[in-house]
Design brief:
binds magnesium ion; alpha/beta; 8-stranded mixed β-sheet; elongated; Rossmann fold; 52% helix; binds adenosine-5'-triphosphate; 311 residues; 12 helices
Length: 311
């Protein structure tokens, strides 16, 4: 079974490292391989649809076609929670209480993490959806999760609620969600980082924090690596080169600065390799303004075959 055969891949990592880009690339690679993929974004503002040139996909809760075999869905946690509570409370004829926003405030304050629980509950529900023929409606669900701090809260929540709600509906739902998140056959956690000091440190910290939750990342994606342009004897040549003319000097300065940055990245890759034996997928730095379908395709072309090979 390849990593792309999981039901859910949860993509998290430090803010700004490229989670959305990587989630989109995973979704696209899965779609290219013929799997029906759903790209779920957890946010109040949808970004993913824009990467695929879709302007109309920003409305939370509505599925939107992004590409052949690829659908997008934005889940807005607050909206998901309000929907859930309205449904749950209607059953108990308490819906009118909700009209009093203070009551609503008390409820969410009394149960922090309820928003996260309901968000994951929606994802669990998506894994359970069947077509009329009884087939799974979604092949692979890729979750563009919040940055690590909130992402960890998201992953921790179902277990926390098992203790808060010791019986009844919330307990049963929390159990189903916690089992889905922890089941490596169904769910994979994808940690995205860049080969820079802070993101690498946060990545190693996240690996530590997942362990007590009974969770483990399946793969590290190191995003935005510079190409190795200067190697071997050329490195020494570049170090000692004394070019004539201003243009030559500027070019040598640029090349040295590239080399220094590439070496910094190599150092951080070494730090990762020394600290964890998790498989690593390396993605290139894209020299283009902004990320669009072409850029996502470039990442997917590298990431797809690598994910296909991973168990
Ligand atoms: N491989 C890459 N090469 C060059 N730029 C990239 C690459 N991947 C992502 N970017 C750029 O880096 C920025 C952050 O990417 P992205 O939005 O995917 O990160 P994120 O982790 O989802 O951020 P946030 O934490 O804000 O959700 C964007 O401007 C994106 O275009
Ligand atoms: Mg993002």
């Amino acid at each position: 079974m390849s990593l792309l055969d999981r039901q859910v891949l949860i993509v998290t990592g430090k803010g700004g490292v490229g989670k959305t880009a990587v989630a989109a690339a995973i979704g696209l690679a899965a779609a290219w391989s013929g799997r029906r993929a759903l790209l779920v974004e957890i946010a109040s503002e949808a970004h993913v649809a824009g990467l695929f040139g879709e302007s109309g996909g920003a409305e939370p809760g509505k599925e939107v076609a992004l590409h052949p075999n690829l659908t997008g869905l934005a889940i807005e946690p607050q909206q998901a929670l309000e929907e859930y509570l309205t449904l749950a409370l209607r059953v108990r004829a308490l819906a009118e209480r909700l009209a009093d926003s203070r009551a609503f405030g008390y409820l969410t304050a009394a149960a922090p993490g309820l928003r996260e629980l309901v968000t994951l509950g929606k994802i669990w529900h998506l894994t359970e959806q069947r077509t009329r023929d009884g087939e799974r409606r979604h092949g692979l669900i890729v979750v563009d999760a919040p940055a690590t701090g909130h992402g960890l809260a998201l992953l921790r929540t179902p277990r926390a609620f098992l203790e808060i709600a010791r019986a009844g509906r919330v307990h049963e739902e929390s159990r189903a969600i916690a089992e889905l998140v922890a089941d490596q056959a169904r769910t994979g956690i994808v940690l995205v980082t860049r080969a820079e000091e802070m993101p690498v440190s946060e990545t190693l910290d996240t690996l530590e924090r997942l362990r007590p939750l009974g969770l483990e990342a399946r793969v590290l994606v190191v995003n935005a690596l510079y190409p190795e342009l200067v190697t071997g004897a050329d490195r020494e040549t570049l170090r000692t080169l004394v070019p004539a003319g201003e243009t030559g000097q500027a070019a040598v300065r640029a090349a040295r600065s590239h080399l220094a940055r590439r070496d910094d990245q190599a150092g951080e890759l070494g730090r990762l390799a020394a600290a964890t034996s998790l498989p690593r997928v390396e993605l290139p730095f894209l020299f283009r303004a902004g990320l669009d379908l072409d850029g996502v395709s470039e990442l997917a072309a590298v990431l797809g075959p690598a994910f296909e090979e991973l168990p």
